[in-house]
Amino acid sequence: MGVNRRSEITMTADEIEAFLVEQKIATMATMHPDGSIHAVAMWYGFLDGVLTVETKAKSQKVQNLRRDPRITFLVEAGERYEELRGVEIVGRARIIDDPEAIWTLGLSVWERYMGPYDDSKRDALAAMLSKRVLVSPEVTRVVSWDHRKLA
To answer: Which of 6-15, 38-47, 59-68 has the lowest mean pLDDT?
Structure first.
């Protein structure tokens, strides 16, 4: 029988935060009406310290969440087993349509993926955020692993 080493690979809160800041892509999973999983790769930023995405208000994922707010985000890294790291964030989605919050997150996303922001990019950012909402989890569970701790 195998040995349960889960406690040895769990990340601390600080390690989770550093990992999420370092990584760039989250898989976001919602539920289709037929019960199948809708999983998509998403850029993300942070709103009040919580991983948050912006997406089209009429997207399939938002339609799914309006019907069933259960959501899971998965952020992972590593190629070989002994390098695998990841964080799973499970919760209930909040759909945010507040223009100020959307702009705040939009700036976060812009700077994470496109570089420094200045007012010359205002129109491009505004276009990126047009007809968008934010999706942010009310977190109920976080699971993490870092197989590098087993070395």
So the answer is: 6-15
Q: What gap in Å lies between CA 128 and CA 56, rounded to an integer?
A: 10
63-72 core/surface letters (b: 16 or more CB in 10 A; e: else): ebbeeebebb
Strand-strand pairing, 132-146 and 50-56: antiparallel
CATH of 6-150, picked from 3.30.210.10, 3.40.50.10190, 1.10.10.10, 2.30.110.10, is 2.30.110.10
pLDDT tens sequence across 19-47: 999 999 999 999 999 999 999 999 999 99
